[in-house]
Design goal:
mainly beta, 2 helices, 4-stranded antiparallel beta sheet, Immunoglobulin-like, 7-stranded mixed beta sheet, elongated
């Protein structure tokens, strides 16, 4: 879950009281591990608070991937939805809304030494005064067999599971690897 508050200067009213009402976006992925299967369905929920619907110009929701690291940085939008001010008034921003889309088979999430490919859900809120506020919630696109994000070892190759001879030890190894990967990515 991501709640993003913009960095804005505090404005004083004519009475000298500081305004504390800054718009906020709440974006929540429905999978608590933030892992989604390639070809599967992604569901996320969003809600806007601390702003009147009359102050909004529009909202954009996108599911995208981007690369970071050596070489050119790429960005590709997989799913895009724009909601104009009239539709925002109709649905009301104070109520939680959801977005659903079918994810592609590739590219998969990858976190290596030289390059990182990351997926995220992005909500961009446009205000009538010209400001925009962005909230992103990252997730991992993985395969059924992988069940964990692909993280390279120092040799820039996918780290194989070691000592997994039967189904229960494979599951235990993958579970331990998932916890290890998630812990290292959160640092």
């Amino acid at each position: 879950m991501a709640i993003i508050l913009p960095k804005l200067s505090r404005r004083r009213s004519s009475t000298g009281v500081t305004s504390e009402s800054q718009p906020a976006i709440r974006l929540t992925l429905c999978d608590p591990n933030s892992m989604y299967l390639a070809g599967g369905e992604l569901t996320a929920k969003w809600r806007i608070s601390r702003v009147q619907v009359d102050e909004l110009q529009g909202l954009e929701i996108s599911v995208l991937w981007h690369t970071e690291g050596k070489g050119d940085e790429d960005l590709h939008v997989h799913h895009f939805q724009r909601i104009g001010d009239a539709k925002l008034r109709e649905i009301g921003v104070e109520n939680e809304q959801s977005i659903q889309c079918v994810l592609p088979a590739a590219p998969l999430s990858y976190h290596g030494q030289l390059i990182r490919l990351s997926w995220c859900v992005r909500v961009r809120l446009y205000l009538e005064d010209g400001r925009d506020i962005v909230s992103e919630s990252p997730f991992y696109l993985v395969t059924q067999l992988q069940q964990t994000p692909c993280v390279a070892n120092s040799g820039e190759e996918e780290e194989p599971l070691k000592g997994a001879s039967d189904a229960s030890s494979v599951a235990a190894s993958r579970s331990a690897q998932t916890r290890s990967v998630l812990a290292s990515l959160r640092r």
